[in-house]
Write a structure and sequence with these properties.
Number of helices of chain A: 6
Radius of gyration of chain B: 22 Å
Distance between the termini of chain A: 17 Å
Largest interface: A-B, 40 and 52 residues
Strand content of chain B: 25-35%
Shape of chain A: globular
Largest sheet of chain A: none
Order of helices and strands of chain B: HHHHEEEEEEEEEEEE
Helix content of chain B: 25-40%
Helix content of chain A: over 70%
Shape of chain B: globular
Radius of gyration of chain A: 15 Å
Structural class of chain B: alpha+beta
Strand content of chain A: under 5%
Oligomer: heterodimer
Structural class of chain A: mainly alpha
Largest sheet of chain B: 6 strands, antiparallel, barrel
């Protein structure tokens, strides 16, 4: 499953860097955090943020800082509440993409937020299937 | 699932790292390093963008058949890209104003829109930057049409706000009646020609051109660049001004080569 999410993250960096204004990298980082709860996600956030900043002609480090703050909030929330649910994935995507699009002044934000939530739901469901398959393989 | 220690030190480590990266990128050495990375990434960006741009123009039956063969398709995309560049250069050199000899050709390496190839982008990224003489405020044209204005620039890349982006404004006039106004970007390919006094005459189909807004530092648009054509007019006797909706003549989704106006001092 990690490979699936890392693969999605790499594709997201390329797609968001060159073609689309959808915050695909943020979505994949949120899903990566929810699924793995591994602190390595900060490293991925830092690297992908740097690449996005270069590709978007932004000050280097800006996006990485935003990603790190979002991930910290998810990890802090995870201490008290269960985060491995579709509802949390959708809510976290909704709130964080809203701030992301607002802070980085991406035009046409509302429709992009809705679309981002749909994409997050789809990827979460896909990773859910992969997660269940991995667990079954482990049990066997 | 892997869990390791407290999250706060990890968070602060990466925040400090990102801040150091920010600080370093502001220095000349850091800027040069970023410039090198930009140069290394530029071919990847350009090739990916070209492949997508070629896809958008894939209409003929021959091209549809060629999609079955991925290798041929890649070659085709490459040749199509070259053709478009040659066509763009020919068009530009057939245009007398602005003089072609003074223009700097730039490749579009990023065209971020909601749905690539379908929704209209509001910004594009070109492969020329500070090292090539661009600066914030440099004007980007295609033929004699105003495409946009540079809003951010690094050593080898620049971000261009398109003429219809929300917040983009420029003094303009109609080419036939010389009615003076302000062209204001409305987003999604729409421009509003605003602040035109009621006594002026506007007509559908009239071409709106830049009035000329050059700054003391040499940036800004020269007069006579085409902004678009009037598609509808809103004139009410009770209003202080009349307005008109203007449609740009260029299709931003298919732009692969644009031209930078030199900064005159």
């Amino acid at each position: 499953m990690n490979k699936l999410l890392v693969g999605f993250l790499i594709i997201s960096v390329i797609a968001e860097g060159i073609l689309t204004s959808l915050p695909l990298v943020l979505i994949s980082l949120i899903l990566f955090t929810i699924r793995t709860r591994n602190h390595d996600v900060f490293f991925y956030a830092f690297i992908s943020g740097i690449f996005l900043d270069i590709l978007h002609v932004r000050p280097i480090g800006e996006t990485s800082i935003f990603f790190a703050i979002v991930l910290l909030l998810i990890f802090l929330y995870e201490r008290k509440f269960e985060i491995s649910s579709l509802l949390f994935a959708l809510l976290a995507t909704l709130v964080s993409t809203s701030f992301y699009l607002l802070i980085f002044q991406v035009p046409g934000s509302l429709i992009q937020i809705i679309f981002s939530v749909l994409v997050a739901g789809l990827i979460f469901s896909l990773s859910d299937m992969s997660f269940i398959r991995d667990k079954s393989a482990e049990n066997l | 699932m892997v869990r390791r220690g407290s999250i706060v030190p990890v968070f602060f480590f990466f925040i400090v790292l990102a801040s150091i990266s920010y600080g370093l990128s502001q220095t000349s050495v850091g800027g040069q390093t970023v410039g090198i990375v930009e140069l290394l990434l530029a071919p990847l960006q350009h090739n990916l963008f070209s492949a997508v741009a070629a896809d958008r123009n894939d209409n003929s039956p021959v091209q549809k058949l060629q999609q079955e063969n991925s290798q041929l398709r890649t070659q085709l995309a490459h040749y199509q890209q070259q053709d478009k560049e040659i066509q763009a250069l020919r068009d530009q050199f057939n245009t007398q104003s602005p003089p072609p000899s003074t223009l700097l050709p730039a490749q579009v390496v990023g065209l971020r829109s909601f749905i690539p190839g379908v929704s209209l982008p509001e910004q594009l990224i070109i492969d020329k930057g500070l090292k090539e003489g661009l600066r914030v405020g440099s004007i980007i044209v295609y033929k004699n049409e105003l495409v946009g204005r540079v809003s951010r620039s690094t050593d080898h890349l620049s971000l261009v706000d398109l003429s219809y982006k929300k917040g983009f404004s420029m003094t303009a006039e109609t080419s036939s009646s010389h009615a003076l106004g302000i062209s204001k970007g409305q987003g999604q390919g729409a421009i509003l020609f605003d602040n035109v006094v009621l006594s002026e005459t506007l007509a559908g189909g009239d071409v709106v051109v830049t009035k000329g807004s050059q700054e003391l530092d040499g940036t800004g648009a020269p007069p006579g660049l085409v902004i678009g054509k009037i598609i509808s007019i809103d004139k009410k006797a009770s209003n202080l001004f009349q307005t008109a909706k203007v449609q740009p003549l260029f299709d931003s989704r298919t732009l692969t080569t644009v031209f930078v106006l030199p900064v005159t001092k």
